[in-house]
Design brief:
Blueprint lengths: L1 H19 L23 E6 L7 E4 L5 E4 L3 E4 L5 H14 L8 E7 L3 E5 L5 E3 L7 H7 L12 E5 L9 E5 L10 E4 L5
Parallel strand pairs: 6-10
Antiparallel strand pairs: 1-2, 1-5, 3-4, 6-7, 8-9, 8-10
Amino acid sequence: MMKSVFTCATVIVTLTAAGCSSTGGLPELASSDSSAYYLGPGDQVRVLTYNDPQMSNTFTVADDGTIAFPLVGTVGAAGLTPGGLAQRLSRILSGKGILHDPSISVEVAQYRPIFVLGEVNHPGQYPYIPGMTMQSAVALAGGFTYRAVTDTAVDIRTDGMPGGKPVRGKIKPESVLRPSDVITIPERWF
């Protein structure tokens, strides 16, 4: 009888400890370096070509990481900063003799979204804003529910990861997010 009580108590303590740590065992994701933004599929970029309004437009980075640019065709954009894409377009337009010494600027018109799931009042897809933290993403999603763990979350990140492979880890409220992050706010067990 005593042995079964001890076994039951051990099982309850183990389950309770596992429940307390809903992100247990996950490594902490490094906070993002928000100084450099690298383009990826789903981003919309505005290309401005000085003195040539026909070459100025908004383009969406396709799933294969390219944009379709007039008179040039497909141009690789994924993995480049907006400035890097401007330099690439300048070189291509000059190299093909389309424009002599073109002055091009590229800005992000719309970033890839983030996704907030779990114990928030309005889970879903939200626009990414540079410098956004887990706390500001939760605020966009209507705040925590009464069952939410508020000091940590699970994040699945592909942006900036080697080979674009998703990495799963823990983040804190002050952690800076990246576009396409999928944040899950876990539920408290008690």
